[in-house]
Amino acid sequence: MTSVPAAQAGTLTLGNTLIVNRLGFGAMRLTGAGIWGPPEDRGECRRVLRRAIELGVNFIDTADSYGPDVSEDIIAEALHPYPKDLVIATKAGFVRPGPGQWKTDGRPAHLRASCEGSLRRLRLDTIDLFQLHRIDPAVPEADQFGALDDLRREGKIRFAGLSEVDVAAIERARRVLPVVSVQNKYNVIDRTWEPVVDYCDREGLAFIPWFPLGAGTLPEGSAVEEVARRRHATTMQVALAWLLARSTMMLPIPGTSKVRHLEENVAAAALRLDGDVATLSAGQQG
């Protein structure tokens, strides 16, 4: 294995500009229970981030709602000043009334304030990828897309992305602003957004699957478990390897607050499933 094993997943380019290794890191778990407040072991979370960089991870996904604010603060604590090739993506569009509670807020004023707050916490002049966490049904879509485009034109963000959207919504957004990524729930078990994966593949948009491991949803005796046994890998590594094989525009972001789990996840970049890809694709969809 190379000294930067994440590179073995290959690369993709965001917006024809930012080249990232296709195994990133999701920073949601760098928080307390219910994605609320600080984590139990802040020092270990910082070690996770630093180890991720050592392993070649150069794409980190977070959001102002993680904590709220906690995840972004820890990223800056651990990694600033940032490596030149590191791409940090964050999201806006939720407010957090309490632990485990999420409420959409897509008002342009809120999105702008969220962007300004993320810039401060992350200690950045420009956010590489700023994603609309959800389209707020109470606010006109065009206003939400337009707010992101205004931030882009002002240089506060470089590129924009969307989350939990169908193909029609992506196309409506693209009429207003350049979109380089889509972040939807997707894994070997839950493939509800299969048409969106295919669309991103055709259009050259990064597809960032959240909940990429489908943790806790694998049935006993699943094909994933069988493949893992034969290949002397963990089920989590097989689940990630399947995602990487599914599309060259796939950018998984498994998250953890433990270094040992991070190292296990990143090792999946070197796992080649070959003929097992078809077996898993046919046998695991829920």
Task: Give a verbal description of the structure.
This protein is of the alpha/beta class and 286 residues long. It has one domain: Alpha-Beta Barrel (TIM Barrel), CATH 3.20.20. It is 37% helix and 15% strand. It contains 10 helices and 11 strands. The protein has helices at 42-54, 70-79, 108-122, 141-153, 167-174, 194-203, 223-230, 235-246, 259-266, 276-283; strands at 11-14, 18-21, 25-26, 59-61, 87-92, 94-95, 103-104, 127-132, 157-163, 179-183, 206-207. The strands form 3 sheets. The protein has a 7-stranded parallel β-sheet with strand order 3-4-5-8-9-10-11, covered by helices on one side. The protein has a two-stranded antiparallel ribbon with strand order 1-2. The longest helix is centred in the middle third of the chain and has 15 residues, at 108-122. The chain starts with 10 loop residues before the first strand and ends with a helix.
> In sequence order, what are the helices and strands, one letter per element?
EEEHEHEEEHEHEHEHEHHHH
| Mean pLDDT rating | 94
**What's the overall geometry?**
globular
Q: By CATH's scheme, which homologous superfamily applies? A: NADP-dependent oxidoreductase domain
CATH architecture: Alpha-Beta Barrel
| Oligomer designation | single chain
CATH overall fold name: TIM Barrel
Radius of gyration: 18 Å
Number of domains: 1
Give the C-level CATH assignment. Alpha Beta
What is the number of helical segments per DSSP (H or I, 4+ residues)? 10
What's the end-to-end separation, in Å? 34 Å
The total beta strand count reads 11
